[in-house]
Task: structure prediction
Amino acid sequence: MTVMLAAEMLPQERVRRMEPMSQHTSWRVGGPAELFFQPQDLADLCSYLRQAPNAEPPSLWLGLGSNLLVRDGGIPGLVICLAGRLTVLQMLDDGNLRVESGVTCARLARYCADAGLAGGEFFAGIPGTLGGALAMNAGAHDGNTWEQVAAVETIDRFGVVRIRQPAEFEVGYRSVRGVAGEWFVAAHLRMISGTQSLIREQMREILRWRKQAQPLDKASAGSVFRNPAGGHAARLIETAGLKGSQNGGAMVSPKHANFIVNDGTATATDIETLINRVRQRVQQVHGVELELEVHIVGVPVES
Result:
């Protein structure tokens, strides 16, 4: 009997069922995905989508799951996970840097430093993939993803890849709206020549700041709330007396009030309940309605 290796199996044969999302999110919580697919590369992803043109579109495109809360009831439908996939990073003839969506922001920052390319240092402070950074215009330390974008490559549910220009998207603070039914698979980034030693020092400073200011030793999803205009969500939460407050295994970090950490026992329900409690309290104390930076997806567990 011949046993087919995973690499030899057709894309449709590699779809997993009831995949626990707690293994694919940085909060380490979440119920199962009904269907779960990880392509080997962009060609494999196109092949998979072309094979099922009449199927429902993906419910979720997933990178490192670092800005995501999956509810305990899981995700009906299909999750396409690009973590560890679509990792090509190359210089183009026009001088731009082509980066596929599965490339981590940390790797992108290191590549730029090694190549003496300035403008991407802030990516060192983003704990996710470029695909996620594109989808939300992620930023850190006065840098934002779409400031570097010369073009993007998207894919639709039929496996068709297109190159689109930034003018085709509405980009704002932690917000991007584009063509419905298309998802990012790569970006062409504009970088400029810089001094390698200065680039490396700036990256080291960003990483030092993160280690000092953020609870990197705990499972979290980064900043939970967007900063309101002219203010900081963390300061509003702290002055509302919420630092260290808990709900089950979820806690508002004593180190950074805009982080909610999992002590190892939290459920997604614990975290979502604490998120709602924080929003209500900040509204009561400051009259400010905090907007979510994290995305909450899936269905709650039936009580």
